[in-house]
């Protein structure tokens, strides 16, 4: 009978082998999230959107903005679907590309409108100023030349023409007949529902005549009459819902027909204001000193 000493190799105490220890990875510990990597695509989208936005504000370089902004938009969308990367630059690039596209549309239409006005606008505006008693031209030809002159220097904000001047465009002739700087009584008598002028302002009333000289017919609303203050603010007639007894109306006029009426404007107290006349939808502005 043989004796086997308990120990190595016995069933009670099987041999053990040392297991190599794995280095601890702090990124795999519970509660720890790996930091996102750099999103190169989002960075490119962000830079492209910034550059595209800048060029979209420059009328002469709109085409560059139109190219870069869609590219930035697509790259920003793709970058948001990449896993394990930051999303901040991608979101910023997406927002800037959308805003830049809106700005590009606004600038584009402004450029188109300006070009259209330069190409088709009424440039043949003439002004026939009322003769002054102090002026004595040498002959009739000189008097005619003095009365009628192109709307170049005369009629600007710096050199407005006088009330009573005849302003003639391709299709319309306008005469500012008078200006009443204190129209509160006229407004109150015209309609009981007319409101008094807001505190710190007063009503000014412009009376004018429009004559249609074009072909077929047109509406008097095509003629623009408003006021511009010394500080540069534009005062429109529809800023105050005032009904006058002799409002110009929106009637249709055939060739040679005229309409005379008035419009009320709310003018801030202490402000000087000029009357601005536009003899046609695309005509140049002429300024009249009340």
UniProtKB/TrEMBL annotation:
Coiled-coil boundaries: none
Upper lineage: Bacteria, Bacillati, Actinomycetota, Actinomycetes, Micrococcales
Residue ranges of the region described as Disordered: 1-31, 130-159
Transmembrane segments: 39-55, 61-82, 89-113
Organism of this sequence: Agreia pratensis
Biased composition (Low complexity): 130-140
Composition skew (Polar residues), residue ranges: 1-24
Superkingdom per UniProt: Bacteria
InterPro entries: Immunoprotect_excell_Ig-like (IPR029050)
Record bears the keyword Transmembrane: yes
Keyword field contains Repressor: no
UniProt keyword terms in alphabetical order: Membrane, Signal, Transmembrane, Transmembrane helix
Name of the protein in its database record: DUF4352 domain-containing protein
